[in-house]
Amino acid sequence: MDNIKILVVDDDKMIVQSIQEVLELAGYDTAAAYTGKDAIELIKDEDYNIVLCDIMLPDILGTEVLANIQKLKPRIKVIMITGFASLDNAVLSLNLGASAYILKPVNPDNLLKVITNKLHEQDKTERLNEDRVSEWIEDRLNNLEDKE
């Protein structure tokens, strides 16, 4: 899995810089957005493997960003991050399709472990989809040969 791209979305520039530093030291390419609307625009223009998104953003809720990502590019794994943990936020995030939910302050080792797991899930899903397409094509070709 080469060239893994991760978008970090948080209005706190120090948090974004800290997370980006951890991710870049681990070999990931990163980008940053400080508002939900900026994140959505970046996601429209670029393919990311993972989005780390704060729930409390200055313009819209992170759960709204999550819902937009699910519509625009559902293959992206979204990990919600919050300093305001609540059962309601966690349940809503997971129901909207978040891949994980992490509390601030973010533990770098835990973050990297979660990202690794989500990337493996993403890779497995993509391989399964490729296998299904290959099987479908093979079946179609066999059916065409049988009809000849």
Structure characterization notes:
It is a single chain. It is built from five helices and five strands. The protein has 148 residues and is α/β, with parallel strands linked by helices. It has a five-stranded parallel sheet, with helices on both faces. Helix 2 packs parallel to helix 3. The radius of gyration is 18 Å and the shape is elongated. The mean pLDDT is 87.
Total helical elements: 5
Low-pLDDT parts are: none
Radius of gyration from CA coordinates: 18 Å
Backbone shape: elongated
**Structural class designation:** alpha/beta
Helix content: 55-70%
Largest sheet: 5 strands, parallel
Care to count the β-strands? 5
Task: Give the topology string: H per helix, E per strand.
Answer: EHEHEHEHEH
Strand content: 15-25%
Q: In angstroms, what separates the terminal alpha carbons?
A: 41 Å
Sheet with the most strands: spatial strand order: 2-1-3-4-5
Average the pLDDT over all residues and give the rounded result.
Answer: 87
